[in-house]
Write a structure and sequence with these properties.
Elements lengths: L3 E4 L2 E4 L4 E7 L9 E6 L5 E7 L5 E3 L7 E6 L4 E6 L8 E7 L4 E2 L3 E6 L1
Parallel strand pairs: 2-11
Antiparallel strand pairs: 1-3, 3-8, 4-5, 4-9, 5-6, 7-8, 9-10, 9-11
Length: 113
């Protein structure tokens, strides 16, 4: 099973930008499809964005244009760049290996308006 370690998160002001990182434990990362999810209090966990091993991306339509998912196969890492943060982006964010169904530990992102 692939182990995923996240970094980033914290308390932000509306309008600021933040990048979340997720590093996989295995060099087989290059073949992983990866995703970012978020779960707000009292709500279900939703996929925010995904990136295939070939770099193709998909986004939650309401976030496209503000959020960008990317990967660096040399570093076994996937990133989520979040721009123009809004209060409704407040949630715990998780990375996930879609290929191996492994999850990161989660990172709280709180956006104050």
């Amino acid at each position: 099973q692939v182990r995923l370690v996240q970094s980033g998160g914290g308390l932000m002001q509306a309008g600021e930008s933040l990048r979340l990182s997720c590093v996989a434990s295995e060099s087989i990362f290059i073949n992983n499809a990866m995703g970012w999810y978020r779960q707000a209090p009292g709500k279900q966990r939703d996929m925010v964005a995904s990136i295939a091993s070939d770099g193709r991306t998909n986004y939650l339509p309401s976030l496209k244009g503000r959020f960008t998912i990317s990967r660096d196969n040399a570093k076994n890492a996937v990133y989520l760049q979040m721009n123009n943060l809004k209060a409704e982006d407040t949630a715990v964010y998780y990375c996930r290996s879609l290929t191996f169904d492994s999850w990161g530990q989660g990172a709280q992102v709180t956006v104050s308006s």
